[in-house]
Design a protein that fits this description.
This protein is α/β, with parallel strands linked by helices and 502 residues long. It is 32% helix and 25% strand. It folds into 3 domains: 129 residues, 3-Layer(aba) Sandwich (Rossmann fold), CATH 3.40.50.980; 207 residues, Rossmann fold, CATH 3.40.50.12780; 95 residues, ANL, C-terminal domain (GMP Synthetase, Chain A, domain 3, 2-Layer Sandwich), CATH 3.30.300.30.
């Protein structure tokens, strides 16, 4: 089975069942599948060929999901784009992935125009301008371009600490196996209604809130975003949501925010939610206890990474839940902790978490060295420090790398640092993440001026404006005389994190 044939199978078995609810519109499985086929035919008419990489730049809307599956049905590879990025940053990804087409909606028309100037060969097309071709060869309906489940379905871009993003090659088998495993771990069925307000470009939201419900034959209740949050609350009640999926920031707000007594009672006693799921970042124990006490709904934490499609582990709904852990591996996934010598460590000891399973990526696109660094003997080296207890539950201790996580999205310091170093008045710089007192981290930038240069914070911020995505911008900027360094001249970021940030 491939992702396209999965959708087709559901359209044949439950054609009239609602697949997606969006604002006041409802789309059946048959309707979504029919749209996918028609748009796939339109893409082929525009020149899409087998194994072409096609980027998607949209906000949350049904057209996003239709485009994703239509690209696959036309024989292409989907490349979801983080819509918080600047045109320059997006252009890097489009060039790196050899994208020939960019599908966008009118919210990103200005971005598309700027990108076309940077990449003149790119064919950028507004979703509304794709020909709707219902009469196409029967083979296309069955998934003409997808010969087997081990072919790449999507390139999901993620960065390590090496700076520029890398495209994780995820196959149909990777994504389908992860959806099936997650479905079993969270007991999802065709009766569920899953609320989707997280960005669709995120691996966590697309696997858990799109592929998984289609696999189960469930309903996707789609919102444009988490804002305004009143719409999220209204949807929980009106659409009778049964599974609520969010990032830690949302649960932190819900557990602490002052909510009117009546609204709190409605949420606590009249909702149909059977479970809440948290992913994409670490969830504090205090938030779990406060949330469950307030709403009387189980909150289960999971763990994953893009390279694993992305779900690796999740606390079970049935059985023992351990709030301090991210749960045991989902079915079919193995996890062990190894020491610096690569040997497996006993239960309870801390080391690097490595995993193995059908969800592990094929590798990084056109980056054999980076691939070899993380894929060894069938195991994915996550770069996360963890321990596993005697029951097989995983506890994430720390990040081995310097990635900063803000509201579930990764910020990669070196990417920002490399840009800042281009400023003529900057000699050295380093960005670190420090706890912000809530759930996320606060990015702090340290700068050493060049010689007698005169430079202020506003100049740095103006320099970044429009060139570095807003969510990557440091919250605070400090100018220092000298950086703490190792004997080999590397900046000690651990020492920077210990400094008083007044």
């Amino acid at each position: 089975m491939t992702l396209s044939t999965l959708l087709l199978t559901r359209a044949k078995s439950i054609p009239d069942k609602i697949c997606i609810t969006f604002e006041k519109k409802k789309f059946s499985y048959f309707a979504i599948d029919n749209l996918v086929t028609n748009i796939a035919g339109g893409l082929k008419a525009l020149g899409v060929e087998r194994r072409d990489s096609i980027a998607i730049l949209m906000n949350n809307c049904p057209e996003y999901i239709v485009s994703y599956f239509a690209i696959l049905r036309a024989g292409g590879i989907s490349v979801p784009i983080n819509n918080f990025l600047t045109p320059d940053e997006i252009s890097y990804i489009l060039n790196d992935s050899n994208c020939k087409f960019l599908v966008y909606n009118n919210s990103f028309s200005s971005h598309a125009e700027k990108i076309k100037k940077i990449i003149p060969s790119l064919k950028a097309v507004d979703f509304g301008e794709i020909p709707n071709i219902p009469t196409i060869p029967p083979l296309l309906k069955e998934g003409e371009g997808e010969k087997n489940s081990d072919e790449v379905a999507v390139l999901l871009y993620t960065s390590g600490t090496t700076g520029f993003p890398k495209g994780a090659m995820l196959t149909h088998r990777n994504l389908l196996s992860n959806a099936e495993a997650s479905m079993k771990a969270m007991n999802v069925s065709g009766k569920d209604r899953i609320l989707l307000f997280l960005p669709l470009f995120h691996s966590f939201s697309f696997t858990v809130c799109v592929i998984l419900p289609i696999y189960a034959g469930a309903r996707i209740v789609l919102l444009r975003s988490v804002k305004p949050f009143s719409k999220v609350i209204n949807s929980i009640l009106k659409d009778r949501i049964t599974l609520f999926v969010a990032v830690p920031t949302v649960y932190n707000i819900l557990s602490k925010k002052r909510i009117p007594f009546i609204a709190r009672c409605l949420l606590k006693f009249l909702v149909n939610i059977r479970a809440c799921v948290s992913g994409a970042a670490a969830l504090p124990e205090d938030t779990i206890y406060a949330f469950e006490k307030r709403f009387n709904i189980p909150l289960i934490e999971g763990y994953g990474l893009t390279e694993a499609s992305p779900v690796v582990a999740v606390n079970p709904l049935k059985g023992i839940r351990k709030p301090a852990s991210v749960g045991p591996p989902v079915p079919g996934v193995e996890a062990v902790v190894v020491g610096e010598d690569g040997k497996k460590l006993p239960a309870g000891e801390t080391g690097e978490l490595i995993i193995r399973g059908p969800n592990v990526m094929k590798g990084y696109f056109n980056k054999p060295q980076e691939t070899e660094a993380v894929l060894r003997d069938g195991w994915l080296y996550t770069g996360d420090v963890a321990r596993i207890d005697e029951d097989g539950y995983i506890y994430i201790v720390d990040r081995k790398k310097d990635v900063i996580i803000i509201d579930g999205m990764n910020v990669y310091p070196r990417e920002v640092e490399d840009f800042i170093l281009k400023h003529p008045s900057v000699e050295e710089c380093a960005m670190v993440g420090v706890p912000d007192g809530k759930v996320s981290e606060m990015p702090i930038l340290f700068i050493k001026k060049r010689g007698d240069a005169v430079i202020e914070e506003n100049e740095i911020r103006n320099y970044m404006k429009g060139r570095i995505a807003q969510f990557k911008n440091p919250k605070k900027i400090f100018f220092i005389d000298e950086f703490p360094k190792t004997a080999t001249g590397k900046i000690k970021k651990t020492e920077l994190r210990k400094q008083k940030l007044s």
